[in-house]
Amino acid sequence: MMCATDLRVDCFPRVAFPAIIQPMLCFRAYSPPPVLNACVQRRRRISLVVQASRSVEDDYHATIKALNSRDRRVPRKSLGQHYLVNSSINERLSIVAGVEEGDLVLEIGPGTGSLTNVLINSGATVIAIEKDRHMAKIVEDRFGSTEKLMVLVEDITRCHVGSHVRSFLGKWNPGKVTKCAKVVSNIPFNISTDVVKLLLPMGDLFSDVVLLLQDETALRLVELQLRSPEYRPINLFVSFYSDAEYMFKVGRENFFPKPKASILHCSSTEC
């Protein structure tokens, strides 16, 4: 159940953050004048939208079954795990990012693979970074030996994500990397700010970033009133690298366990 909320903030690039029972934001990479190219990086767009996968049903029961298959009865709160149990939300996320055949998509925290399934069905090749070895195994078992998926058991906040993505892009365009990748993720809520800080400066690498965030996080990121009591350094960071747009809310009943979240969308003009 989504609420039609559309809030735009005109900063440099456009960014959109949708929310689960909360808002959605969108960031678009900023293209500075030639004179500024030496000191200012271009901004990227980040968005969050979801759509359902039609080939495999990903609902509450399917999620619980997948967790039980690895003796994981409940998500690990310490890792900020929460799983989408409505595949239509995943489809909409894919649409927001404009995922199509031939795209390279980075997914952070794939969980049971419901969003991964939608991305692969859309024709994308997915690099999934999962810190939990048990969940990584669930995703690997689900998709078998498909060449459309690479699962990396790493901590997104500590791994060299740029190197991984550039390596893949380099294989597709030997000698000259001209195509940008995209980020589409229902990220662990406990690392939301870290992920935003990590991805936004990579405007030359990611053309679109779609993230599902907690409502309060999305609202905080788009709060650009300098003199407001809620204004924080992260607002300056976000406004420097992109334009934030609060897109829409996604009902908490679409998750297990039920959280309060929002969607963020950022795009870059460098790609």
Uncertain stretches of 5 or more adjacent residues:
1-23, 30-44, 46-56
Tell me, rounded to a whole number, the average pLDDT.
72
Number of domains: 1
- Share of helix among residues? 25-40%
What would the principal axes of the Cα set say about the shape? globular
CATH C-level: Alpha Beta
The major β-sheet equals:
11 strands, mixed
CATH architecture level-2 label: 3-Layer(aba) Sandwich
Kindly state the number of beta strands: 15
| Structural class by helix and strand composition | alpha/beta
- Supply the number of helical segments: 8
* Strand percentage: 15-25%
Family: Belongs to the class I-like SAM-binding methyltransferase superfamily. rRNA adenine N(6)-methyltransferase family.
EC number: 2.1.1.-
Binding site for S-adenosyl-L-methionine: 82, 84, 109, 130, 155, 186
Keywords: Methyltransferase, RNA-binding, rRNA processing, S-adenosyl-L-methionine, Transferase
Can you put this structure into words, describing what you see?
This protein is an alpha/beta fold. Helices cover 28% and strands 20% of the residues. It contains eight helices and 15 strands. The chain has helices spanning 60-68, 87-97, 114-121, 133-143, 161-172, 192-199, 215-222, 233-241, and strands at 2-3, 7-8, 15-17, 24-28, 45-46, 83-84, 104-108, 125-129, 149-152, 181-185, 206-213, 245-246, 249-250, 255-256, 262-267. Strands 2, 3, 4, 5, 7, 8, 9, 10, 11, 12 and 15 form an eleven-stranded mixed β-sheet that branches. Helix 6 links the parallel strand 10 (181-185) and strand 11. The longest helix is centred in the middle third of the chain and has 12 residues, at 161-172. The model is unreliable at 1-23, 30-44 and 46-56 (pLDDT under 50). Keywords: Methyltransferase, RNA-binding, rRNA processing, S-adenosyl-L-methionine, Transferase. InterPro entries: KsgA/Erm (IPR001737), rRNA_Ade_Mease_Trfase_CS (IPR020596), rRNA_Ade_methylase_Trfase_N (IPR020598), SAM-dependent_MTases_sf (IPR029063).
